[in-house]
Structures are given as structure tokens and as C-alpha cells.
Amino acid sequence: MRPFLHTLLCIGIIISLASCASYQMGQPGESDSYRSVYVKPIRNDSTYPLLKASLTASLRKAISNTGFLDVATSKSADTILETRVTSVSREIAAVSSIDVGRGRKYELEFETLCTLYQKVGGQLEPVFVNRRINVKQDIFADSGQVNAEHQAGPEIARKIAQRVTESIISTW
Length: 172
Fold this sequence. Notes:
The protein is α/β, with parallel strands linked by helices. Helix content is 33%, strand content 35%. Helix 2 (52-64) packs parallel to helix 3. The longest helix has 25 residues, at 145-169. It is flat and about 85 Å long. 19% of the residues are buried.
């Protein structure tokens, strides 16, 4: 009985060690097919002003921060990223206690479409086309809605850039 348990224990150890033999450490979503991305200037079709420059800069920074993707020029990049902000909707999330017709807190929802092309043999082949990304941001409009939206611009750009970058590096 004892040799049988000893043999069973040895087989169990060998199987558990063999299952870990093929494990390789690395970044999640790491791709062997491309290492660099060219970020085309953002196209802003929404009614939210001044988003183009801050979102383009935020996207480039977020991609660089991944650790395994580089931002490159259009000629040297392996992939090309096109991003278009299609719409922004404003909803009143909370009203003023003095005047219920006046919003105190607004929820902005941005809809963004992204397309990633990969260069293969001199041709551009789509990796994904018009991937929809929605981002929500709350703003407090006690000092005026326009001023609050303007001040929230960099945070909104950072959130959109983070979601777009996650979309690029995710395993699909």
C-alpha cells in the first residue's frame, strides 16, 4: 500500500511541474505582429470643443505607457490608429435644491469609434474597424456648465485615451 501511495504522489508532482513548464512571463496583450502605432490626429465630430489636441496627446502618452508599444511616424509604424469622437450627450444627473430646473451635476457620455490598420506587405489591413468606445464623465456645474465642461476636458481625454489603448492591446 505504501509503495502505491509513494508512486501516486510522485506522479502527481511530475504532472503539476509539467503543467507549468510552458508558462512564459510577459505583458498581457503583447503582440508579436506589431510593436509601433501611428496615432492619426483625432477627428472630432461631436459638439464638445477643444478635444482634438488634448485627446491626440493623451492617446500618444497612453500608448507609450503600455511598455511594449511605441508611438512612431506614419512611415515607420507597424499600425495606424484612426479615432473619431462621434457624439457627446449631456444629461442632468442632479438638480439644484433652490431651482429644480437648473442642473447641478451633469453626466457627459462620449461615443468614440476607433479603427486600427496593420501594414502587411505594403498594404493596410484592418485589425478592427469602428470599434465603439463609450466613456462617461460627471461634471459639477455650480460655477457654470460651460466652465465646468472646459475644466473637465483633460480628464475626459485621459479616460477616452485609456479605453482606446486598452482596446488596442487587448487580446481579441
